[in-house]
Design a protein that fits this description.
Strand order of the largest sheet: 3-2-1-4-5-6
Number of strands: 6
Shape: elongated
Radius of gyration: 22 Å
Helix content: 40-55%
Structural class: alpha/beta
Order of helices and strands: HHHHHHEHHEHHEEEEHH
Distance between the termini: 44 Å
């Protein structure tokens, strides 16, 4: 699968390249190229350089990139042109920008990366994973917190629209594997009809070749369950990234040790839960039990 290269992805790629160049110079010159030393030499803030290297913020000034390339000894035109093009493309607007005002902190960056991923592995223990949500369920879920979060009707509708546009990722060849707990599916948002429609949506998505959904039953108390929701994104040219939600914010991890821990959580649940082929019947049985 060819690598997707949207603005957020390219921003992370540029940061990765700049960090690699800095570390390479440090090895060749026997030190002296720590982030702090480079920041001091070029008049950058330490925080700015670290965040650029992590892909958290863009590098909008061409002069800043040229200063970094000069400092790191990037002299060949082809190499400089590649980094300059990456920097220009990383500054383009993401489609999600129009919904930025209704998204939690950190979520626009995550959604930009999610669009560039080749595989998505997610676990949800409270609600249906966003990629699986039906429009009616999403509206009921977001509407349930409208008063508490002091959100307008327009804000709720914008959030629902953003959620539905996000689901377009499922129409390609991206591999998507989601694990849900039974308790998340038993927690009703909206009417029984809304929940029936949500179950039907999951069953429909299970029929796609690129989508697998597993459910961890409640009646297996010894089955391993992670205590927190998370999603792992895999890419062609970047290492995996892990996302987890908390109230009003989205956190991302990319350190191999952090990512490895979440991968072990996911793999353990994949092995313990009933296989994806059992999910449609599980949902039909659950619907009959709850609303027969």
């Amino acid at each position: 699968m060819a690598a997707r290269r949207g603005p957020t992805y390219l921003r992370v790629m540029l940061g990765k390249e700049l960090r690699a160049l800095r570390e390479q110079m440090g090895r060749e010159r026997d030190g002296g190229y720590t982030a702090e030393a480079v920041s001091l030499a070029l008049g950058f803030s330490r925080s700015k350089l670290s965040r650029v290297e992590a892909g958290e913020i863009p590098l909008p000034k061409l002069a800043d990139l040229e200063a970094l390339m000069d400092h790191y000894g990037v002299i060949h035109d082809a190499d400089r042109d590649q980094l300059l093009q990456m920097q220009r493309d990383s500054l383009k607007s993401e489609p999600v920008t129009s919904y930025r005002h209704v998204l939690p902190s950190g979520m626009p960056r995550y959604l930009g990366l999610e669009r560039e991923s080749v595989r998505v592995r997610g676990y949800e223990n409270n609600v249906v994973h966003g990629l699986l949500q039906h429009e009616a369920y999403a509206r009921a879920l977001m509407g349930s917190a409208k008063i508490v979060e002091e959100r307008t009707t327009d804000a709720v509708e914008s959030s629902v629209k953003a959620r539905l546009e996000r689901k377009e990722l499922l129409d390609g060849d991206r591999e998507v594997h989601i694990i849900l707990t039974e308790s998340a599916l038993r927690t009703a948002y909206g009417s029984p009809e809304v929940m029936r429609t949500q179950y039907e949506e999951i069953i429909r998505l299970c029929q796609q070749d690129n989508v697998d959904v597993q459910i961890i039953p409640e009646h297996l108390p010894d089955m391993y369950r992670a205590r927190f929701n998370f999603t792992i994104l895999d890419f062609v040219e970047l290492g995996p990234v892990v996302q987890s939600d908390s109230y009003g914010a989205t956190t991302l991890w990319s350190k191999p040790s952090d990512v490895g821990q979440y991968q072990r959580h996911f793999d353990a649940m994949v092995k313990a839960a009933p296989g994806p082929s059992q999910t449609p019947q599980f949902l039909k049985n659950l619907e009959e039990e709850l609303w027969r």
